[in-house]
Amino acid sequence: MTATAPSGLLRIGELARRAGTTPRTIRYYEELGLLPNAPARPAGGHRLYSEEDARHVRELMRLRALLGLSLEELGAVVEAEEARAMLRAEFEGGVSDAARLREILTQASGHLDLQLSLVRRRAAELVALQDDLESRRARVERLLAESAES
Amino acid sequence: MTATAPSGLLRIGELARRAGTTPRTIRYYEELGLLPNAPARPAGGHRLYSEEDARHVRELMRLRALLGLSLEELGAVVEAEEARAMLRAEFEGGVSDAARLREILTQASGHLDLQLSLVRRRAAELVALQDDLESRRARVERLLAESAES
DNA sequence: GCCGAACATGACGTTCACGTAAACTAGCGA
DNA sequence: TCGCTAGTTTACGTGAACGTCATGTTCGGC
To answer: Long-range contact list for B46-53, CB < 8 A, 24+ apart?
Structure first.
């Protein structure tokens, strides 16, 4: 059994590896509704994923780790993302009219804005912490220099 | 019963409030050795804390939340901090000789460097995520503009 | 066609980080 | 002194996020 199925698709082990986690976690997330319930299950019943799926899961892990989200909070993000994905499907399938197009894009923009606001706040807090630590280190460094010149 | 004892010291409730947590958590941290075991317990047996203690606890919470540290990892930081505090005490009490002083300061600097490396990495990851989201939003925004001009 | 590794489901176990309840004591304003 | 709030310890409970085990099935190379 090779890691990637002949179709170029990934089984749960490979998906987990690429996302930096374990198969158990993938199944758990699926159970919670964080991942699509039946990602193409041919005959055998084994789950099969695309590379896109792998990127998606990896992105979720990243978001969760960096923002410190609970799985429930992550669920909210996923829901919004799925709504966006549906709109995107309509968008790529050739959009009906211009008004509808703007509606879709506006929704997408709003969703990104929401995530951005979370990320920006967190980033700002971290940078503030970094600045604090740096100024404290500078103070120590200054004392060291003074001690050396004597 | 006022929030602050007449001595200007804080009881556990006030400390928790200022640190943005609960008394239970404070006791738990003390039990784990994250906080000094007996912060001055006069007659009654009630814990009493200084404003400095409050700042310290708040700082620990901040570090933990922003870096996503477990309590065990936080313990390592605290240990290093305590070693530094001992050195600092010696430092403020008038340092013996210049060599010893440099030793102390070098230790302190190393400790801060360690924390800084953690914070910097985390901050970099968050900024990278922020950039990703921003570029995706820019793309959507561009599409919106194009749709408007037609 | 066989065989070992990887998958499936289900159930139970585990760790972390506290929450909560019970029974008692201390501090403080009226 | 009374009464109320906030503290004390001990112990058991809890939710989140998986880990682990048992039992059976499926791939895919040989």
So the answer is: B46/B11, B46/B12, B47/B11, B47/B12, B47/B15, B48/B5, B48/B7, B48/B9, B48/B10, B48/B11, B49/B9, B49/B10, B49/B11, B49/B12, B49/B14, B49/B15, B50/B9, B50/B10, B51/B10, B53/B10, B53/B15
